[in-house]
Please model this.
Amino acid sequence: MKIIAIGRNYAEHAKELHNEIPTEPVLFMKPETAVIPKNFPFYIPSFSNEIHYETELVLKICKLGKNISERFASSYFEEITVGLDFTARDIQKKCKDTGLPWEKAKAFDGSAMIGKFINKKSIPDLKNIHFHLNIKGDLKQKGNSADMLLSFEKIISHASTYFTLKQGDMIFTGTPAGVGPVKEGDVLDGFIEEQQLFSLRVL
Ligand code: ZN
Model:
């Protein structure tokens, strides 16, 4: 299983990190070992002083595909959830400044929280999905799939040009604005509409 993630897929988030809006989608990956096991907390790694949450809609790929055209892309996922793309922002900044790859900042153990999947048919309009993150009960980040620069179909099509998609692969579809740091003792709760799909302690 692999995780493919897209960067800068919401204009307001690209702005808050002073990034250009890309003309070509920014893709990166996380390995299977990045996924936080069920009922485990998130442990803040010792190598970073600035771990950020990024709340994102996550798709689960349901069949094998390569060079998938946009018009068939929606048949490649049946389930969706909300997740966290944990990012060591201090390390990512160093990587960006020196033009180095992002893995240490994005693909470390525990860097992927994936909520409980729900069938996409239970969502009335996939182009208008509200999702949000609460920390200790306070709203910290919210987004809507309507604001994505690239649709789910475009992401799947583009990613499959480079990487064969396999059943069980996950696609993180980008974070809206409002990213921020986590600290020990936080409890992070993720929602699609009013449905809670994960609760995660930070230690
Ligand atoms: Zn992200």
